[in-house]
Amino acid sequence: MHWIRGEALGRGGFAFVSKGIITSQQDGIPHIVAVKSSKSSESDSLVKEKKLLDRFNNCPFIIRCFGDDTTEADGQMLYNIFLEYASGGCLADIMKFSNGRGLPEPAVKNHTRSILMALSHMHALGYVHCDIKPHNILIVEQGDERKNVKNSVKHTAKLADLGSAINMRGGEDNEDDGGFRGTVLYAAPESIINQTYVPQSDVWSLGCTVVSMLTGKLPWKFESPMTATDV
């Protein structure tokens, strides 16, 4: 696959995301993708995420992965995975523009249904996401190519960032298991207290996310950045 790295879209702890332009046409791969990259020496989480996305690739409510490769930049090797480009951004960004008013209830209903479908798929295959929050829910805009079609753009919420997911049955997917995972303000009590991760934990986190969508605010008040130990 031949591609060009475009503008930066975001950065996390060990990875960064850029817009990617595919220059060699291939069946099933769009012209524009999101490229998630990390140093090859720090890519264990990204390799795991790619493996899980391949496993869930037939779920329309989980962000799609189109492949991976390794490149060199500034003298260091980078591991890259090619993801479905979410032109609508993430829910956290959309909520920022709501000026504290939250999202319309029909939109909240549709987004919640989509993420419930994604979680149902993951849970049925024995996985818990462990980090449901607005930042990890992306909005994919799917348009009708016909001209003059009113309301032709459909906004679909899709679950992303599976790097914290665990396999409830154990196995190699849990090699990095141990300690708290997730985001404190959205985490279930059992996850914070006992580092227990079950499907119900994801549902709790989605509930907190629904509160944020409706209100435009964080689900809990806090005075300073919190860790699981603080809670």
TrEMBL record:
<keyword id="KW-0067">ATP-binding</keyword>
<protein>
    <recommendedName>
        <fullName>Protein kinase domain-containing protein</fullName>
    </recommendedName>
</protein>
<dbReference type="GO" id="GO:0007165">
    <property type="term" value="P:signal transduction"/>
</dbReference>
<dbReference type="InterPro" id="IPR017441">
    <property type="entry name" value="Protein_kinase_ATP_BS"/>
</dbReference>
<dbReference type="GO" id="GO:0004674">
    <property type="term" value="F:protein serine/threonine kinase activity"/>
</dbReference>
<dbReference type="InterPro" id="IPR000719">
    <property type="entry name" value="Prot_kinase_dom"/>
</dbReference>
<keyword id="KW-0723">Serine/threonine-protein kinase</keyword>
<keyword id="KW-0808">Transferase</keyword>
<dbReference type="InterPro" id="IPR008271">
    <property type="entry name" value="Ser/Thr_kinase_AS"/>
</dbReference>
<dbReference type="GO" id="GO:0005524">
    <property type="term" value="F:ATP binding"/>
</dbReference>
<dbReference type="InterPro" id="IPR052751">
    <property type="entry name" value="Plant_MAPKKK"/>
</dbReference>
<keyword id="KW-0418">Kinase</keyword>
<comment type="similarity">
    <text>Belongs to the protein kinase superfamily.</text>
</comment>
<keyword id="KW-0547">Nucleotide-binding</keyword>
<dbReference type="InterPro" id="IPR011009">
    <property type="entry name" value="Kinase-like_dom_sf"/>
</dbReference>
<feature type="domain" description="Protein kinase">
    <location>
        <begin position="3"/>
        <end position="231"/>
    </location>
</feature>
<feature type="binding site">
    <location>
        <position position="36"/>
    </location>
    <ligand>
        <name>ATP</name>
    </ligand>
</feature>
<dbReference type="Pfam" id="PF00069">
    <property type="entry name" value="Pkinase"/>
</dbReference>
